[in-house]
Amino acid sequence: MSTFQDECTGSEAWHGSLQIRDKRSSSADPESLILAEVERLMAEYTRGINPNLPRKSKGKTYYVVWKGRKCGIFTSWPQCMAQTSKFSGAQCTWTFQEAEGKLRDELIKIVRLEASRSHPRSIAETGDVQRPVASSPALPHDGTPDRDRPASIPRHSPSIPALETAAVDGPTDDEGGRPETAGAEGQERQPLHIPGDPPLCPEQQNAIDLAMQGHNLFITGSGGCGKSVLVRALHRMFNARYQATNKTVHLLAPTGQASINIGGRTTYNYAGWTPEDARKPLYGDGSIVTKARGQRIFNRYRHTAVLIIDEISMVENQFFERLSYVMSAIRKDPKPFGGVQIIVVGDFCQLPPVKPFKHCLHCGKEMSKLNDQWACPEGHGHAFQAGDKWAFEAPEWKRCNFKCVRLTKIHRQSDEAFIKVLQTCRLGQHLDDADANLLLAHHAEAENGTELKSTREQVNQRNLEEFVKITGRVHEYKAADACTLARGERRQPLDRLDEHRYPRELQLKVDTPVILLANVDLDRGLCNGRQGVVVGFVSSDTIQEPRPPSLRNYEDDDDGYRAATERYNRIVDYLESAWSNKDMFPKVRFANGEKKVIGPDCAVTGYGDQSPYSYLSQTQIPLTQGWAMTIHKSQSLSLDRVVVDLSRIFEHGQAYVALSRARSLSGLKVVGADASGLRRIFQVDDAVRAFMTSIDSNDTEDQPADAKAARSRPVE
């Protein structure tokens, strides 16, 4: 843990920032000078500090001071007190990386203040070489800071899979070198280094340069090429640029686990939607545009300067379209996303969107599927084929006029032969005997590794095999299913409960590895996909009843309020039953060191073609046993030891995603396929292949053309 001491004064804390005054006469970008000076100070103030000290049983591990007799990170309270005595104000954090990031953020403020005192013109005014297209006023920045780096959890007997550590996809040494990019007036500019992340390599720095010039970017590359590191670097750079203004920068990903990995929020969370909002029409009464006029979402859209969307392969065509249309309507700007700068990041050779084309973009009604085509029952739009599900097939994609940046240097794995085979698998190319033998017959050190399987059925079977090996009392939790019918509705499609993600019956013991199935507390990193271990059971009466939803938070969104009320009522019912039966709820220690008693959660699904909707709900403890997990759940993770079962692959990109989760060849074991099977498994979706060919045929400076001609936008 680190303690942040603020409100401190002293002479030494300021001496470094004065150096920027000598540079103000230069015609170089002032913001670049500020960031360069901050990096110099960071190197000075963190020199000699071990970033991997074990956590102390008592007291803090790190103390950070950015205003005091001496700035820096310290490893004992007496050292910190010597710099901060007689000053008040303290905050806490968990990791060296977060302390380092906090120190850097505060130094940016200090150096910018010093620069503005010596140069009265605003930093924001002078620092923009080329501004993004967004021009609306903004609220103060509300981006989420980088999450804690998860720490490994001790393994228990019998075999408990090794838990994930946060993916750091950048280089681990200086082999990437530093680009010789000329700055303004010929000044040499060093690549950005984000504290806690490796230095950026030249191709990553090129992406930074294009982004800072205001271009919309599509950043792609295979697993382990440093996309996540680059995303965090972009986020920091944009935050620094807009810190002196009122504009906001948002970092998004389609899943909870992926958003935590990059320190962002989910796409649905940013949009202010639930999955049920796809049932709403695009425009008119009760539409998602009407919902977006509520103050909170309205202000968020109006004041966004930059959207960075990671894992773009999992963002569906119509979600991409819908968000762009709504933002354009709210911002009163016909350009894509209302003129906001858009940066999308990901690899379309990985997993596609799940269950695309469920609802019509225009009217919200359920799409009809016939002969592998989806169409609106009201005749809106056109029929979609399976290959249309990708975001690059959305007409808004082409209108974004993306510049493509391809990252080619692999940082996650260091074995060149393994990297070559992964690239072959990614592109669906022929695996020769040597390639297949490398994957199947190498010496693997994957004992107790997480097992990745294609289907939930396989995962459940494997978890059961391991669960019976653990001794101790079994705690069993049964899901509570319910159906609330809207007035006039009589049918109860209970078969849809099978679509819910929670297990009908959940059995747990102490030492059971588990995977969290809901976003319980994003601020603490407790998101869908987070791994942990059950360390005990606590009386259910320690769980507090949730707060009922407030109608004030659902302005112009009656359906959202009804769904939230349904969820609240079902959780309260479950808790009252647990209290009366004196049930025990599991206490889990998660891979990032957080501990939490996990109470019930309720998944609510609406059905019907018009409001008010009927609701199906399933209430359960949002955990599942975690010796094995689905390949879909693993996307965005990096695993030290992993056993990949390829026996029932059913999706393009699935096998490649599974293999590329491994940090090393030695930590990977492949089962469920022989050499001939491997050659059949690795295939690329036809639409993706055509798209990749189209961007390969263009220069990096050209936009990647989509595979379809642009279609007209819906009219409000």
What does this structure look like?
The chain is an alpha/beta fold and 716 residues long. Among the domains are: 1-129, no CATH class; 450-638, no CATH class. It is 30% helix and 17% strand. It is built from 21 helices and 29 strands. The strands form 8 sheets. Strands 9-8-10-11-7-15 form a 6-stranded parallel beta sheet. A 5-stranded antiparallel beta sheet has the order 23-22-21-20-26. It has a 4-stranded mixed beta sheet with strand order 3-2-1-4, with helices on both faces. Helix 2 crosses helix 4 and helix 6 (202-212) runs parallel beside helix 7. It is globular, with a radius of gyration of 26 Å. The two termini are 52 Å apart.
Mean of all residue-level pLDDT scores: 75
Poorly predicted spans: 1-18, 20-28, 88-92, 119-158, 162-196, 699-712
Distance between the ends: 52 Å
Largest sheet, described in full? Answer: 6 strands, parallel
Assign a percent range to the helix content: 25-40%
EC number: 5.6.2.3
Keywords: ATP-binding, DNA damage, DNA recombination, DNA repair, DNA-binding, Helicase, Hydrolase, Isomerase, Nucleotide-binding
Organism: Colletotrichum noveboracense
Cofactor: Mg(2+)
Jot down its keywords.
single chain; 716 residues; alpha/beta; six-stranded parallel beta sheet; five-stranded antiparallel beta sheet; 21 helices; 29 strands; disordered N terminus; DNA damage; DNA recombination
